[in-house]
Structure formats: C-alpha cells, structure tokens
Amino acid sequence: MNNITYEEQTKITRAIIKAAVLMLEFGAESKLIEDTAQRLGRALGVDSVEVSLIPSAIVLSTLNNNQTQSVTTTRRAHHKPINMSIVCDVQKMCIDVEREKKDVDYVFNTIKEIQPNHYNRWLVVFMVGLSCASFSYLYGADLNGFFITFLAASVAMYVRHVLAKKQFVLIISFGITAFVATLIASTSQIFELSSTPNIVMTSSVILLAPGFPFVNSVLDAVKGYLSMGWGRWMQALLLSVATSIGIILAFALLSMRGW
Amino acid sequence: MDSLLATYVLNAIFAAIPAVGFAMVFNVPRNALVYCAIGGAVGYTTRFVLMDLNIPIELATFLASTLVGVIALYGSRKYIVPRPVYTIASIIPLLPGTYAFTAIINLLQMNAQGVSPELITLFIDNGLKAVIILSGIGFGLAIPSLVFMRYNRPII
C-alpha cells in the first residue's frame, strides 16, 4: 500500500490541507486541527503528516515510502466569523473516512458540499437579547433594567447581523454595535428608567465579549501551540478595544463619564 | 431553605439561556444546543454554590470549568462532537466580560481625563480579575485533556 505515486500523494495533501484550513478559518482549536489532519492522513494512506500552524496560515507536509517521498504545501487562512457547525462537519467527515475507508475524492466532494447551518436571523436576535437580559438579571438588575437590556441587546445584535452581511471587518462592526448598544442602554440613566443603570449598560454590550478567541487562546497555549495562543489573544484584545472605543464614543456623545 | 433552592434553580435557568443564545451565534449544530444549556446551568450553579461557601470567584470559576471540562470529556466520546463546540458555549455565563470592558474603558479614561490614583486602582482591580478568571476558565477546560495527553505517552 505504500506505493503511492507523487501525484496521488499531492492530491491527498491537498485534501488534508483543505480540511485543516476550513477548521482554522472557522475557529477550531489548534489541537483539534492537528489531530484531524493526522488522522485524515493515516486514513488516506500516507505514513505521517506534519502540521505547522500560525494564526494566518497552515504549512502541511505528508511523508510516504519510508519518509523518502515528501509533499509540502502552504495555504493562507482568512479568518471568518466563528461557525461551529462547519467544524463539526469536517470532524464527522474525518471519522467517516477512518471508519468506512473512503478515498480522496470523497473528501473533496464532502468539503464542497459543507454548508453552514444558519439559524433564523430573528430567532438569533431574540435569543441574544434574552441572553443579555439574563445576564442583567444575574448581575442584579431590576425589572425595567431587564427589559431595556433586552431591547438594547436585540437592536445591537440586529445591527451586528446587518454589518456582517455587508461583510465589514470584524473590528468595525464590533465598534459600531457597541456604540448603538450603549446609546440605547444609556436611556436607563438619562431618563432614570431603571435604578441600576450601570448593570444595564454593562450587560447590553456583553454580546460583544470575544469569549471564544480568549478561551481558545488559553487552550492553545497550555497545549503547546504558543504562537497560536498569542495570535488569538491579540485578536480577542483588538476586538475588546474596538468595543470599548464604541462605548467611549457613545459616552462622549452623551457627555457621560464612565459606567 | 426553599427560597435558597428557588434562587439556585432560577439562576440555573437564567444561566442556561445565555449559553444557548451565544451557542446560536457560533452556529453550534442543533442537536448540541441541549448540551450547551445543561453545561451552562451546571457551570454557573457550581460557581454560585462554591461562592456561597466563601470560595473566591477565581478559584470557584476554575473548579466550575474543570467540572464542565470533565463532563464534556465523557460526553464527547458518547456523541461524536468535538468538545470545544459545547464547552465554550457552556462557560459563556462565567466569562468576565464586564471586568474586561471596564478595564479597557478605564485605560482610555486615563488617557482622556489624566491619570488619577482612583482610575489606576479601578484598572488594576478589573484587569487582574478579568485575566485571572479567564486563565482559570482556560486551565479548567484544558485540564482533563492534559491528563489524557500524558497517558498517551510511555512514562519511561
């Protein structure tokens, strides 16, 4: 089985890196990317797969014929909004290939057919509004505060959706969303609608907390992917700064100071 | 006693909602949403109970996310879904988002209004809390798989 020609090995390498790039772009953990690439490689019949990850690209080598035949390729990864359903699909495909001994063409076809599982836009808007309102409850807001948070967060989520659809850079859309959320939430302080305006304002921007990159960065770092850890930390920090600038701009417009 | 139980149940429900809501933003597959809700409720309730026992928030968060990580490890073997898909949604209610934003806003205020001891105190307070809670969450989630990583290797 070890007599794979150079062309076949190149094709296998292309299939593996396609799967790996999909996982990196949609926010999978580094350990998961490397494990999936190596399992796919073994299942498709190469001796070993070596992966080198940096935040913006993947370098991948496959070795075969007693490590005398090596194919290396590089792909750039453009970061997209996190989408776990695609990561799940790639993982499922990897397991299918392992168990049912599928071939390379199966990998190419499956990857071509992977579609993001999009939830209804209004359902997401409603659920995120409710989530932020739940946060305000957990932090101890009153009933009025609960409803203002719900309104502010829902509108903010809608704005974020519109900006995401027009494909703005994440930093810009986070800043604008935070600005809108703070403007609406600050009515609780200006018109004294709620007795806990600070909680309302903090919990209505919590939908912008970049929890996923932050947690991923710690997970990557403790599992030995230090540069990925730093990269994701920087990305999350930039998003937080963008959000804070949006909040500060809203404060400046309303001439308020601090929370 | 009844009212205490009621508080726990209410908090668990209100922690499960954000877990599901944010899981939808990350496009978690439909059949994993239930586990996100359970994970969110378990994580938050554990932290709440531990904080009632006078354990500081950092340690309580670490223990709570370790519990979520251990549960998720056994869950992911049963239903073939990569773990981060629902662990990260489950610990969303524990995230120190407010601390992080307050810290950065304090930093920007220091630039705009001039540095004052109060602002520095606020900044260090919030920033430290955010970073320590966040590393607590990360380590807690990573510990179960780190233990397994050692087992994969021969000890000698």
Structural notes for this entry:
Chain A is mainly α and 259 residues long. In chain A, 66% of the residues lie in helices and 9% in strands. A three-stranded antiparallel β-sheet of chain A has the order 1-2-3. In chain A, strand 1 and strand 2 form a beta hairpin. The radius of gyration of chain A is 23 Å and the shape is elongated. In chain B, helix 1 crosses helix 2 and helix 2 runs antiparallel to helix 3. Chain B has one domain. The longest helix of chain B is centred in the last third of the chain and has 36 residues. Chain B is mainly α and 156 residues long. Chains A and B meet through helix 3, helix 5, helix 10 and helix 11 of A and helix 1, helix 4, helix 5 and helix 6 of B.
What attributes characterize this protein structure?
heterodimer, A: 259 residues, mainly alpha, 3-stranded antiparallel sheet, elongated, B: 6 helices, 0% strand, globular
Can you summarize this structure?
Chain A has 259 residues and is mainly α. In chain A, 66% of the residues lie in helices and 9% in strands.
Bin the strand percentage of chain A: 5-15%
- Ends of chain A: how far apart? 66 Å
- Poorly predicted parts of chain B: none
Chain pair sharing the greatest interface: A-B, 58 and 50 residues
Count of helical regions of chain B: 6
Question: Which residue ranges of chain A are poorly predicted, with pLDDT under 50 across at least 5 consecutive positions?
Answer: none
How big a fraction of the residues of chain B is strand? Answer: under 5%
* Main sheet properties of chain A: 3 strands, antiparallel
Indicate the multimeric state: heterodimer
Overall, the morphology of chain A is elongated
Helix content of chain B: over 70%
